[in-house]
Amino acid sequence: MVTRTVNYNLELVDFDTTPWHEREHNNWRTIDAVFSNFITVQNMQGQWENSLAVAVGARYVDGDLGTIWTVLIAHTTPSTGTFAADRLTNADRWESFSVSITSQGTWVTATTYTPNDFVLDAGRYGVVQSNYTSGATYDIDVANGDIVTLIDVSSVIAATHDTNTIATGGTPTATYNASTKKFDFGLVTGATGATGPLASVAGDTTPQLGGFLDANSKFVSLSQGASIASVAGDTNIWTNFDGNTVHITGTNAITDFGTPKSAGDSMWVIFDGAASVVDSATITVSGNTNYQAAANDIALVYALTTSTFLFTPFPNSGGSPVAASGGAWTLIGTQVADDSASTLTQTGLDSTYDTYAIAISDWTGPDDNNCLFRVGDSSGIDSGSGNYAQHLMYVKAGDANYGASESTSLNHIDIFRNPGGDAGEGAGAMIFLHGPGDAGARPYISGLATYHRSSDVMVGSSIFGERTAAITLDRVQIYISGANIATGRMTTWGIKHT
Predict the structure, then answer these.
(1) CA–CA separation, 323 vs 180, rounded Å?
(2) What is the structure's pLDDT at 1?
(3) 60 and 118 housed in the same domain
(4) What are the CA-CA distances from residue 115 to residues 37, 54, 104, 254 (Å)?
(5) Do 275 and 133 sit in the same domain of this protein?
(6) Pairing of strands 343-347, 329-336
(7) Residue 295: its pLDDT value, please?
(8) What does the pLDDT look like over 191-240, one tens digit per residue?
(9) SS3 407
(10) 117-121 and 102-106 as β-strands: parallel, antiparallel, unpaired?
(11) Would you say residue 9 lies in a domain?
């Protein structure tokens, strides 16, 4: 016959056993001890009774309902009636009590804890047994009986973990290594299989979108790739795939832009030198003509297919992309007179163009003030005596005789002489500068001018002149001596040679 319970070994006392009450009491003492390790009820006084003096904080059981109540006001219970009737009549004397369980998270030193608080410490899960302030370590509190550890995996699972990478398209893994007591997590490096926001897709060399990319009102930063040397033929601007813009160096004629990833790719190119782009079935240049680039010109290359391209240039000079194609005139600048100065000066000439055109239009000024021409370099306009030579041949309307003004030692070149300053009188001219800014030869000019002289007669002239020594030319100037230019415009173009 079974005489003990299976779990707590409580004695099954026969009813006629002597002494029965002692052995039964031992069972209750065992149950009380077991309960106290899991549920702590402070100041428990047992069953409520009539005519019982009770103190504040004491707790009594309502045997009829199986509930626990806490005394709020010290008193003596009624001599008759039930506990429930007493509470109904004197509701301010009692408060319902129930065992609460509270998760306090990670155990912390010098913290107030109460019974049934649950705490964590390095893989251990414990329950607080008493009202107390925690000591220096969790282990000290356990030794003092203030905490009972319910679960301890600190010796099974390490506090840290290991990770390894899994190729794009793989499946994430989680394994346990008994030798290191660590979990090992396998993380997919690419977008496939990943969850949550991506910090980077640098490890995925072929990332793809599943839909439209919404920039969410944020800036998308692009990159400049390594410079590409122009090749007389196929200049592969996509060779490194390291940016959205590349510089093209050198001066070769480009007939192909290489192989992009796919049709629809585009690349900004910046020319560092005077390379050219050949219009053909492979490259369609804006204007359907060859393009001669200059330093700092920028252009957009668009891949129609992986072997054919559209090429749209944007010249640094500010001229039209089509007009800037081979053989065209490129505007260098224009200067306008407003009767406030005696000179109009244009800078920015250099070795980009071998020939420059200079137009003088709507010139007016005081009577008999000659229009004169000079050149200069980075140090300024050259006005040195004897530095210019000229021959100006002119003829008056209605006069078959030609006149001339010539000299081998001047500080200027005459454009037109003795123009009139009365109403309706003025002047205009077209001058050509024959040579780039870094020419080894002297700066030569030639041109034609038409004007009214102060004697109200129309004059036409041919101009030939030079600066008598070579110069690294970067500017030109027209001026009059001793007065301001009332009105007029000087416009300068560079003429491309291809």
Answers:
(1) 74
(2) 55
(3) no
(4) 10, 23, 11, 84
(5) no
(6) unpaired
(7) 92
(8) 544 455 566 677 677 788 888 888 888 888 889 999 999 998 899 999 99
(9) strand
(10) parallel
(11) no
- Percentage of the chain modeled with pLDDT above 90: 49
The reported pTM is: 0.41
User: How many domains, in total, are found in the chain?
Assistant: 5
Same domain? For 409 and 473 the reply is: yes
Contact predicate 149/37, CB 8 Å: no
Three-state SS at 140: helix
Count the residues in the chain. 498
Tell me the helix, strand and coil percentages in the chain, rounded to 5.
Answer: 5, 40, 55
Distance of CA 438 to the CA centre of its chain: 42
Q: Is residue 24 part of a domain?
A: no
Give the side-chain half-sphere CA count within 13 A for 337. Answer: 23
Range of the structural domain that residue 446 is part of: 329-495
Looking at the fold, whether 108 and 92 belong to one and the same domain comes out as no
Please provide the average confidence, as pLDDT, over all residues in the chain: 87
Which of 314, 347, 372 is the C-terminal boundary of a domain?
A: 314
Is it the case that residue 324 has pLDDT exceeding 50? no
Residue 422 belongs to some domain of the structure: yes
Dist CA 454 CA 461 (whole Å):
16
Token pair of 184 as six digits? 């090992």
166 in a structural domain: yes
Residues 6 or more apart whose CB falls under 8 angstroms from that of 413 comprise 372, 373, 374, 388, 390, 445, 463, 465, 466
DSSP-derived 3-state class of residue 12: coil
Pick from 213, 238, 212, 216: nearest CA to 225:
238
